[in-house]
Design a protein that fits this description.
By secondary structure, the chain is α/β, with parallel strands linked by helices. The protein contains six helices and ten strands, in the order E-H-E-E-H-E-H-E-H-E-H-E-H-E-E-E. It has a single domain, classed as Rossmann fold, CATH 3.40.50. Helices cover about 30% and strands about 30% of the residues. The strands form two sheets. Strands 1, 2, 3, 4, 5 and 6 form a six-stranded mixed β-sheet that branches. A four-stranded antiparallel β-sheet has the order 8-7-10-9, with helices on one face. Strand 5, helix 4 and strand 6 form a beta-alpha-beta unit.
């Protein structure tokens, strides 16, 4: 994790979705930090990004295109919160030992999530940074699309959206279909995305689509490297 002179070293909290990708883009444009790795939680039993269900080989293709080393936090399934926090703390302690002083998050407006992150990092010597916090999400979604973000819905919450939207492209047509109760960026957990192209990548990641699986109230689109 060699840092550029004069800039603090940071990790990006990377979910494989559009918000973390856009946070990376914004931070790189501001040129305030040297992003030296992407911190991602992977559920070990499935070799998939936790919550998003994205295959690990897709994650690694993303990070290769973003020019970022992977910092993988492996957790079991199911994963009690104390185990999650222990494994995350160990990864952050190792990063701190290598000179990392900040972690970049793509959170938008959930105060409880931000407060949790701040509590977990308190006293660690690592400072959380929220570069897209408070941005109106309808405008932010359109800005991402206009800038060339290409993403698909990897997961949808079946209490809020139909299973047929799993795998759909995140574009203006999709935004127009969302009910008024659904946040344009899915910040309330309505959906999660996988980003395959955008200004934070050196190249597009070609994906193909497998079956959609419904489990525990969610529909997961199985995205694969093409």
């Amino acid at each position: 994790m060699a840092a550029a002179a004069g800039r603090p070293k940071a990790l990006i909290a990377w979910s494989s979705g559009k918000d973390s990708a856009w946070a990376l883009h914004e931070v790189r444009r501001a040129d305030e930090f040297d992003i030296v790795g992407a911190l991602t939680t992977v559920t070990d039993a499935f070799a998939r990004v936790s919550m998003h269900g994205v295959r690990e080989d897709l994650l690694r293709a993303q990070l290769d295109a973003a020019g970022l080393p992977a910092v993988i936090v492996r957790i079991p399934f199911p994963c009690p919160n104390d185990i999650y926090e222990r494994e995350m703390a160990a990864a952050l302690a190792e990063a701190k030992a290598q000179g990392v002083t900040h972690v970049i998050f793509g959170d938008l407006f959930l105060e409880d999530v931000r407060a949790y992150r701040e509590r977990q990092l308190a006293g660690s010597g690592i400072t959380p940074v929220f570069p897209i916090w408070g941005r109106p999400t309808a405008g932010l979604a359109r800005e991402m699309i206009a800038a060339g973000i290409e993403a698909h819905l990897a997961v949808v919450d079946l209490n809020k959206l139909p299973a047929s939207l799993a795998g759909r492209k995140f574009d203006a047509a999709l935004l127009a279909e969302f009910p008024a109760s659904v946040d344009a960026c899915g910040e309330n957990g309505e959906f999660h995305t996988f980003v395959s192209a955008g200004p934070m990548f050196s190249r597009k990641i070609a994906v193909r689509f497998g079956e959609t699986v419904e489990r525990d109230g969610f529909a997961f689109a199985d995205l694969m490297l093409a």
